[in-house]
Q: What sequence folds into this?
């Protein structure tokens, strides 16, 4: 399968850290709680996973002809839960692979529980340019509904992040920061959603990710809610989420993707790359790599989600899947419609696009691109289904991208 890959000249890197301090009740990501481990500091499994991660990343980049790394995203899980010693080692190893780091955007996900000034200093020393802090909510009642531990040190943590941002201004590696919020949480009220959003914008992060809660099957939250989990609060959640978004937009955050808002220059280039379906190499339990194929399609490789299977990986890549060119064009269209860049009109079914424009769900930009409006983003699932139905078995026509 790897012989069908067309080595890309540049690439994004994703590193998945499969641990968090504890497990949130709504979480369906591959992450294990460190609180169940006896001695985290000396646990050899953690060191083995990190060594394998670094070795595999090095090998994959080499097999791809050492493309220029444009963005790095260390996520999970909670990378900062690894502690300063391991983060220092991991970041040093990643940095060694980046070559010339100029212009590389490097993001790290952090949880307030495991973020302090020392951890931020490690990030800064290695050239991290974005810290993404998973706050999710400032309100204890909401965190409780989510089954997520409140962080007593939140104010202190966010002050440290803001100090790092301020002191790096004007340097060649300015540090931006992003704040994650979850909205539309079960019985969250409009006032609570607005309160959370207002507290977030008062901190003036460069970027805010505002996600709707999605109740994933198999999670403790889904079990708690029972069979009506997905629908029970759906109507109310849509209103509540819209109110939170309005707060962000009213103070000048630009919504550049369904869930992503930024100040000028604060966009996450790494995530832009995903939405444009640019090549990236992922490494770590459950991480996905997406690479161009020689036939115009895409080849995806997925690392085993179970830690033991990941450690037992003997080949340079995990399970492979070939995505045909027509399917890749379809996926590209689906991703593009999530963003303010939209997708090229060429090859799109005209009746569907006309309908969206007439209903105020989309607009045509520069005569060639179709971009969803806020109203269209609210109904994105329905619109994407309409597009898939209109394309039918024929798939996207040539030119759709
Ligand atoms: S901190 Fe994030 S990745 Fe970790 S358990 Fe909670 S939601 Fe999942």
A:
């Amino acid at each position: 399968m790897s012989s069908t890959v067309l080595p890309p000249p540049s690439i994004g890197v994703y590193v998945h850290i499969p641990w968090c301090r504890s497990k949130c009740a709504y979480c369906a990501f591959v992450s294990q709680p460190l609180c169940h481990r006896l001695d985290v500091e000396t646990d050899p499994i953690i060191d083995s996973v990190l060594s394998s991660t670094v070795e595999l990343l090095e090998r994959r980049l080499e097999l791809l002809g050492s493309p220029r790394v444009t963005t790095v995203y260390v996520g999970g899980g909670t990378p900062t839960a690894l502690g300063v010693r391991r983060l220092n080692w991991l970041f040093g190893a990643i940095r060694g692979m980046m070559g010339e780091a100029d212009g590389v955007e490097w993001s790290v996900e952090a949880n307030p529980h495991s973020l302090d000034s020392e951890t931020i200093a490690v990030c800064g020393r290695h050239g991290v340019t974005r810290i993404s802090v998973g706050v999710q909510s400032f309100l204890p009642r909401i965190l409780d509904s989510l089954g997520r531990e409140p962080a007593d040190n939140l104010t202190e943590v966010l002050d440290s992040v803001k100090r790092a941002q301020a002191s790096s201004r004007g340097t060649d590696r300015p540090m931006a920061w992003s704040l994650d919020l979850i909205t539309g949480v079960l019985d969250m009220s409009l006032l609570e959603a607005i309160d959370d959003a207002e507290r977030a914008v008062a901190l003036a992060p460069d970027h805010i990710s505002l996600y709707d809660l999605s109740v994933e099957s198999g999670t403790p939250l889904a079990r708690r809610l029972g069979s009506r989990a997905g629908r029970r609060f759906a109507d109310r959640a849509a209103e509540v989420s819209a109110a939170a978004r309005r707060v962000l937009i009213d103070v000048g955050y630009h919504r550049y993707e369904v869930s992503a808002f930024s100040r000028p220059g604060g966009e996450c280039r790494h995530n832009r790359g995903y939405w444009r379906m640019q090549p990236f190499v992922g490494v770590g339990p459950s991480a996905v790599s997406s690479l161009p194929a020689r036939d115009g399609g895409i080849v995806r490789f997925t690392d085993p989600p179970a830690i033991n299977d990941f450690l037992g990986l003997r080949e340079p890549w995990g399970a492979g899947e070939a995505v045909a060119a027509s399917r890749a064009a379809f996926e590209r269209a689906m991703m593009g419609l999530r963003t303010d860049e939209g997708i090229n009109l060429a090859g799109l079914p005209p009746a569907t696009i006309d309908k969206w424009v007439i209903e105020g769900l989309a607009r045509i930009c520069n005569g060639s691109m179709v971009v969803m409006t806020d109203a269209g983003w609210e109904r994105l699932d329905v619109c994407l289904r309409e597009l898939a139905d209109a394309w039918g078995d024929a798939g996207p026509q040539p030119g759709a991208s």
